[in-house]
Amino acid sequence: MWTHNKLVSLNVSSLIRLGSNRTVDTESISGLPTRWWRLGEETLADKYHKLSGTYAPVMVLVLSAEEVNKSLDLATLVDVVDDALSKQAAGEVERPRRPHFTVGAGLDGDEPTGTGIAMPAYIYGADHYATKLVGVHNENAKRDLPTINAQVVLTEARTGLPRAFMAGTTITNARTGCIGAVSVRALAPESDDDGLTLGMIGAGAQARWQTRAIETVTALSDVRIYSPSDSREACAADLMKKGIPARAVDTPRKAVAGADVVVTATTATNPVFPPDALGAGSLVVAVGAFTAEMQELNPRVLERAKQTFADVPEEVAETGDILATDLTTDDMVELGVPLTNGYVRDSPDEILTVMSVGSATLDAAAGEMIYQRAVEAGNGTEISL
Known about the structure:
Blueprint: H1 4-9, E1 38-39, E2 42-43, H2 44-52, E3 59-63, H3 65-70, H4 74-89, E4 93-94, E5 100-103, E6 114-123, E7 128-136, E8 148-156, E9 162-167, H5 169-187, E10 196-201, H6 205-215, E11 220-226, H7 231-241, E12 246-248, H8 252-256, E13 261-264, E14 283-286, H9 299-304, E15 305-310, H10 313-316, H11 320-323, E16 332-334, H12 336-341, E17 351-355, H13 360-377, E18 381-384
Parallel strand pairs: 3-9, 10-11, 10-13, 11-12, 13-14, 14-17, 15-16, 15-17
Antiparallel strand pairs: 1-2, 3-18, 4-6, 5-6, 6-7, 7-8, 8-9
Helix pairs in contact: 4-5, 4-13, 5-6, 5-13
């Protein structure tokens, strides 16, 4: 039977150089980082199988939340998300409709405890496709646990071999935050020398990510944070520590009135701010609602809007925000279109809205970026399947 030593005698190790300046471990085939076993169109694993009749172990890179954070650069991710949305609008992705389903019924009674979501996607030309598994559990705040938990799996597009398993909650939060950033960069009204005024409805993790991402593309002169709970104070304090001029306000009207940009980042089932508080020329970015039961915007906001953009129009059309209006999928423009072609306002007073339910395309793009940066830095732990 062929052994690894016989494989080495073929001088295979001299043909392979690994992406982090490491060379092949010639002592044990199981020590080889399989994500770098590439010999043109044939992998070292294939060659080993031909010689030994046995496939070498599949090694998967595991990235913890801490390691994902190490590999995340928010300003870079904004550009990655922008490009991914443009490719999605151009039809250069495979993104099946995502199933979402209630979970937990029968555990503590008849009512469900949360929502499960599966989100697969592939961007043409990428080395990997991604599948994200998400759990949304609103009662987790009472348990001192995050409302959203997610895991992202990367699979090699050429072979179907698993390549990475990474904590996905930060990826979800960061790429969703970038929706606000790309929207502001393309669609926000012109700001004065001091920067834009941002009204933030919501004070959870997503409020922080939205604000931080937006701050990478424009100066902010005033950020007003509203939430019905005291979390608004903690959110404002966290943003202040990062040098962002944030303050808590005690009504949604105070957050929205006079704001150039309004972002809603909640799990609300009823409108979260009075429509008459919204000023002329404002950009509204709504990222919270993703089911028919969820609603953040009063129908009057969408009626006043000159144009509504959506990351995934056919799925946004099924949310409570749109179901409360007469709008349909055909009334919305895919967000990737103005990101690609630009958008010129007919009047500085026109209101624009951006609706986001989240797209697995962004998980695929963000996961690919983080994986490559982790590989280059030597972060993560490899395990054998």
